[in-house]
Design brief:
The protein is mainly beta. It has one domain: Jelly Rolls (Sandwich). The longest helix is centred in the N-terminal third of the chain and has 13 residues.
C-alpha cells in the first residue's frame, strides 16, 4: 500500500523551493517501464512548464493542494482557452496532441499526474518551437505574457 501524505507534499514543497526549476516530483510508479505512469508534482508560483504536447497520450492531473491554470494553444501559439484548476475544478485531462502549459497559482500547486506508459524520453513530449526553453533569458517575459494572455492572443515571436 502506498499512501500520499501531507508530509510528502510538505517535503516536495521544500524541495521545489530549493530547486532552480521551482518544482519537484515524486514517482508513485516503480519504473519507467510501468504501463501507467503516476507521480506527484509540486510547483511554486514561478515554475515554468514550457508549452508542449503529447502526440499519442492523454494525461490526467488531480489537484491536491493550491491552484493553477491550464492554458491551451493552437500550433501557431495562439491561446485557445484558459482553464482554472483547484477548488471547484479538481482535475484536468489533456487530450493527445493538445499544446498546453500549466501556470501555478501564486501560492503554488500540487497535483497527481497519471498517463500511459512506459516512459520514453524521446517521445514523452514535443516542446512548442514558439516558446522559450526552460532556463532561457526570455522565460520571465514569456511567463508575464502567459499570465495576461487571453484566448486569441498569439505568443510573442522570439
Amino acid at each position: 500500500m502506498k499512501l500520499l501524505t501531507g508530509a510528502l507534499l510538505d517535503e516536495l514543497t521544500a524541495r521545489a523551493q530549493a530547486s532552480p526549476r521551482s518544482r519537484a516530483h515524486h514517482n508513485i510508479h516503480a519504473t519507467p517501464e510501468d504501463p501507467v505512469q503516476r507521480f506527484v508534482v509540486v510547483a511554486q508560483g514561478a515554475s515554468y512548464f514550457r508549452p508542449h504536447r503529447h502526440t499519442v497520450r492523454s494525461e490526467l492531473a488531480v489537484v491536491v493542494r493550491g491552484s493553477a491554470e491550464v492554458i491551451t494553444f493552437d500550433g501557431e501559439g495562439r491561446v485557445t482557452a484558459r482553464y482554472p484548476a483547484g477548488g471547484e475544478n479538481l482535475a484536468w485531462e489533456t487530450p493527445p496532441n493538445t499544446w498546453h502549459t500549466v501556470l501555478p497559482g501564486a501560492a503554488g500547486v500540487a497535483f497527481v499526474e497519471i498517463k500511459q506508459g512506459p516512459y520514453d524520453p524521446a517521445t514523452a513530449a514535443e516542446f512548442a518551437p514558439w516558446a522559450p526553453v526552460e532556463g532561457g533569458a526570455e522565460v520571465g517575459d514569456f511567463q508575464a505574457w502567459l499570465r495576461a494572455a487571453r484566448p486569441g492572443d498569439v505568443a510573442p515571436r522570439r
